Amino acid sequence: MAVVPRGRPAVTRYRIRERFAGATLLECRLETGRTHQIRVHLQHLGHPVLGDPVYGRTRVPEMSRQALHAARLEFVHPQTGEHLAFAAPPADDFVALLARLRRDVRPGGNMGPGRAKPRSREQ
Fold first, then answer.
1. Spatial CA neighbour of 104 closest among 20, 26, 23, 19
2. From CA 71, how far away is CA 2, in angstroms rounded?
3. Tens of pLDDT, residues 88-103
């Protein structure tokens, strides 16, 4: 996957929740559902997901996976039309990573909203 000029439209809205030394906690809301969308968009912006072996390559001692957490998922069931919503707390490894990042010196506080609207295409 990559962001390319003639790719399929994909929109990821994001908001900076917290800044750390060398990392930023984001809240992302997807308007589209492309494969690897968050990972591709953040890599394209020069800020790959921590622990992402494909688009980021930054290892995280606390985690053996990507530093992603789906706090809330909502969708309309394709057969029943029912609106479904699910919420989940972050996993222990994600909480441990945030605790370490918060102990490190951070360059500022929370910032305002942002928006990324690159076009991506499967390769």
1. 20
2. 25
3. 999 999 999 999 999 9
Tokens representing 52 are 């992402």
CA nearest to 55, candidates 3, 95, 96: 3
Tokens in use for 71? 């706090």
Closest CA to 23 of 65, 75, 60, 73: 60
pLDDT single digits (tens) 51-66: 999 988 788 888 999 9
| Burial tier of 108 (Cβ tally within 10 Å: 0-12, 13-18, 19+) | exposed
Of 87, 121, 120, the C-alpha closest to 12 is 120
Angle at the Cα of 32 from the Cα atoms of 79 and 41, rounded to 5 degrees: 145
Mean pLDDT for the stretch of residues 5-10? 80
- Residues forming a β-bridge with 26: 16
CA distance 10 to 34: 7
- DSSP 3-state of 114: strand
For 100, phi then psi, to 5°, come to: -65, -45
Beta bridge partners of 29: 13
